[in-house]
């Protein structure tokens, strides 16, 4: 059912109804049991949606209790009241927003996750959605609970034509995509799932956005690229009204000329494509040049043309883009964003040349001249980047991503104390916290602040418990080395045992990671020697 196509058809219950809270729910049905129940319905039982009548009056009584109990910090009971009210008014977004506020207050106060008791008793799709929402409300920062609630909401939207639960699903989907816990370890499967769900509610813009993320995370998946093109085309058709009949277009005020304008449609599809072809670039750049010719003083058109030229990643086109933007910045010196744009092009260009030189050196590792040339070029590139980030930090002092990037370049030149300042600032951003703490711990090690390094690595690992990715293994490796240093310094076999524990975690997942086997042997000898001295 289309996300924005349905209208509410609610009927209020005018009779007096005794309001009771829902009983404790029984364990959520497994998918297999869900399928069995759905199959029984298809054999003759009436769909759950056909006999359902929403009631704003019944819902209102529950919502009144929900707000009253929230004011006295009875957050668990308040959430129960909200979900009970939503049973009678399932697409009420105002009350759902209020429930989210309660959920966050409960979380801030140390509220625990949902228990098995919270997950029981759901028999219909609507009840399963409400159970999923209760689970989410008790763990609102977990993208997985929000994704589960979205999934159940889509299921409800597809059978309850009298409701607009697609809006509920959209709300949860946005929540998942904005969740900071995805920042450290974005997962293609999550964005593929989001694409599926947004497509089912015909939210084409969000489906394209989610599929774009998935394609970036899985660049070798040709099926995703093909799907993205199809979704982009569908979005273009819907946005332009091309999927309507002639009568619908006439009624909606859309001219037939716009329907026949295939060039505009092709341009839109080319602009939305994540992997543009040469033909796409030719069309887009030609159209952008015409805009600049018609309005040569409009900075927006000049910047758009420069962006398209830079996207080709060809020296000649990039040089034209940089020159164009430099000239524009000389005219509009206060528009710092223009300088950012051409410096970004220069950084990409320099790094592409650096990668090409590294490839040559890798092919001839014994060539000392190539090695020296690569090392010198790398220093030049990083120095240029550091100058850029230093200036940007002055311009945009609250952008912690800039502080993070600045810190990495400072580390390259062994300016560790300055780097510590940058990473300490960057770790205040939830999306950067784990990665910033990893580098922060490494800086502490260089200053021989081993206890601070251990504390920082342990806190970072708690935030990023995954061990099967590069970040997880690297943080445990650095923690292991910090424990080794502390053990030797303090002559402590207990600290050596902690180093061994970190090494063991890495060995179990990747025995070929760096020199982990050699490190394990060293730690065992260290622990044995220290135990003899104890």
Outline of the structure:
The protein is mostly helical and 534 residues long.
Overall description:
By secondary structure, the protein is mostly helical. Helices cover 71% and strands 0% of the residues. Helix 18 (368-395) runs antiparallel to helix 19 and helix 21 packs parallel to helix 23 (470-490).
How is the secondary structure organized here?
Layout: H1 31-42, H2 56-71, H3 75-88, H4 93-108, H5 125-137, H6 143-157, H7 166-177, H8 188-200, H9 204-217, H10 222-240, H11 246-251, H12 256-260, H13 262-272, H14 278-294, H15 299-311, H16 315-331, H17 336-363, H18 368-395, H19 400-412, H20 416-426, H21 433-446, H22 450-463, H23 470-490, H24 493-509, H25 516-533
Structural class: mainly alpha
Give the biggest beta sheet: none
Total helical elements:
25
| Helical residues, percent | over 70%
Task: Work out the radius of gyration.
Answer: 29 Å
Which segments are poorly predicted (pLDDT under 50) over 5 or more consecutive residues?
4-37, 39-46, 245-262
Percent of sequence in beta strands: under 5%
Principal-axis shape: globular
**Average pLDDT:** 84
User: Distance between the terminal alpha carbons, to the nearest Å?
Assistant: 72 Å
**Beta-strand segment tally:** 0
Query: What is the succession of H and E elements?
Result: HHHHHHHHHHHHHHHHHHHHHHHHH
């Amino acid at each position: 059912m289309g996300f924005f196509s349905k209208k509410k058809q609610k009927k209020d219950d005018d009779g007096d109804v005794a309001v009771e809270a829902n009983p404790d729910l029984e364990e959520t049905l497994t998918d297999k049991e869900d399928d069995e129940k759905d199959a029984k319905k298809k054999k003759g039982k009436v769909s759950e949606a056909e006999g359902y009548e929403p009631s704003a009056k019944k819902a209102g009584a529950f919502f009144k209790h929900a707000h009253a109990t929230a004011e006295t910090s009875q957050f668990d009971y308040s959430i129960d009241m909200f979900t009970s009210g939503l049973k009678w008014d399932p697409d009420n977004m105002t009350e759902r927003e209020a429930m989210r506020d309660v959920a966050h207050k409960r979380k801030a106060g140390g509220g625990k996750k949902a228990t098995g008791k919270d997950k029981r008793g759901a028999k219909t799709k609507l009840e399963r959605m409400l159970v999923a929402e209760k689970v989410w409300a008790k763990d609102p920062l977990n993208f997985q609970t929000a994704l589960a609630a979205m999934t159940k909401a889509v299921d409800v939207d597809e059978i309850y034509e009298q409701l607009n639960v697609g809006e509920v699903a959209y709300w949860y989907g946005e929540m998942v995509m904005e969740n900071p816990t995805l920042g450290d370890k974005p997962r293609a499967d999550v964005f593929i799932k989001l694409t599926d769900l947004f497509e089912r509610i015909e939210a084409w813009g969000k489906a394209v956005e989610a599929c774009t993320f998935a394609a970036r995370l899985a660049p070798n998946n040709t099926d995703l690229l093909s799907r993205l093109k199809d979704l982009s085309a569908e979005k273009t058709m819907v946005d332009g009204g091309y999927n309507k009949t002639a009568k619908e277009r006439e009624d909606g005020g859309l001219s037939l000329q716009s329907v026949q304008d295939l060039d505009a449609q092709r341009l839109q599809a080319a602009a939305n494509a994540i992997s543009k072809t040469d033909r796409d670039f030719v069309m887009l750049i030609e159209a952008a040049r015409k805009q600049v010719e018609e309005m040569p003083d409009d900075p927006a058109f000049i910047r758009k043309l420069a962006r398209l030229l830079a996207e080709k990643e060809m020296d000649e086109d990039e040089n034209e883009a940089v020159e164009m933007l430099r000239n524009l910045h000389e005219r509009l010196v206060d528009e710092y964003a223009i300088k950012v744009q051409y410096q970004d092009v220069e950084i990409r260009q320099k790094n592409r040349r650096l990668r090409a030189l590294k490839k040559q050196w890798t092919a001839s590792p014994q060539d000392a001249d190539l090695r020296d040339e690569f090392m010198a070029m790398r220093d030049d590139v990083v120095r240029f980047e550091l100058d850029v980030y230093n200036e940007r930090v002055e311009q945009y002092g609250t952008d912690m991503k800039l502080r993070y990037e600045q810190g990495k370049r400072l580390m390259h030149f062994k300016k560790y104390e300055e780097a510590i300042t940058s990473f300490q600032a960057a770790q205040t951003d939830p999306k950067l916290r784990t990665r910033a703490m990893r580098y922060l711990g490494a800086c502490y090690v260089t200053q021989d602040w081993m206890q601070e390094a251990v504390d920082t690595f342990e806190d970072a690992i708690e935030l990023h418990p995954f061990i099967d990715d590069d970040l997880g293994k690297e943080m445990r490796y650095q923690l292991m080395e910090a424990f080794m240093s502390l053990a030797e310094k303090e002559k402590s076999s207990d600290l050596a045992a902690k180093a061994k524990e970190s090494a063991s975690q890495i060995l179990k997942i990747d025995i070929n990671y760096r020199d982990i086997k050699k490190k394990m042997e060293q730690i065992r000898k260290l622990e044995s020697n220290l135990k003899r001295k104890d």
